[in-house]
Write a structure and sequence with these properties.
Radius of gyration: 20 Å
CATH architecture: Beta Barrel
Distance between the termini: 40 Å
Helix content: 10-25%
Shape: globular
Order of helices and strands: HEHEEHEEEEEEE
Number of strands: 10
CATH topology: Porin
Strand content: over 45%
Length: 209
């Protein structure tokens, strides 16, 4: 029921934007970078977070481009989160565990007429990525010729995560600077579901009509 209501609201906003698109318009392209946390919804992940067995690493970012007019926004994003396990399987505790993904999304501003500098938005997207375990950069290995290979960063295990998602966010913009607070959650893939929160800062290139 919740998903049906969200899709209905999305369609209403799309119709409203279509009806008003000739009133006025402004366009911008934007490069942005921000802090992002991906939290998987399976019980094992949540239990490990609650007992401090699993923590986020030092690199938890989102970066990408956005193309925006007064009513809609299209984004291309790269997401990376690192995780640190303090105990358990040596494969996970002794190596680097990271989530990497690319997301393409489309959003509609919920109050485009109210303000071009501040508006909540609702959207959908699709993410393709993976959760991978790799050797640390400082790991040394020896090849068949007896030579040392430092920083091999070889992949030891990985799981693909490709899923649709819905998102809700708030954009605040002033001249060439924008600030976005966004929440995403996957659907249709319950076994690898996650939600994500991000705070990003962008630099805009604006064209007014």
């Amino acid at each position: 029921m919740k998903k049906i209501l969200l899709m209905l609201l999305f369609c209403i906003v799309l119709f409203k934007a279509k009806a008003q698109q000739h009133d006025y318009s402004s366009y911008s392209s934007e490069f942005y970078v921000g802090y992002s946390l991906v939290h998987f919804l399976n019980p094992t992940f949540s239990e490990s977070r609650n007992n401090d067995n699993l923590n986020y690493g030092s690199l938890n970012i989102e970066a990408g481009m956005k193309f925006t007019n007064r009513f809609a926004q299209f984004n291309l994003s790269y997401i990376r989160n690192e995780y640190i396990l303090s105990s358990g399987n040596p494969l996970l505790t002794e190596n680097d565990v990271a989530f990497n993904g690319f997301e393409a999304g489309f959003s509609l501003f919920l109050s485009p007429i109210t303000s071009k500098n501040f508006s909540p938005y609702l959207g959908v997207g699709y993410l393709g990525g993976s959760l991978s375990v790799t050797e640390p950069d400082d790991t040394s290995t020896t090849n068949t010729n007896g030579q040392n290979n430092n920083g091999s960063n070889a992949a030891l295990a990985s799981a693909r995560i490709s899923t649709p998602l819905w998102k809700f966010g708030i954009m605040a913009a002033y001249k060439r600077v924008s600030l976005n607070l966004e929440y995403r959650q996957t659907f249709l893939t319950p076994e690898r579901a996650f939600h994500q929160a991000s705070l990003s800062l962008g630099y805009r290139f604006i064209r007014e009509d």
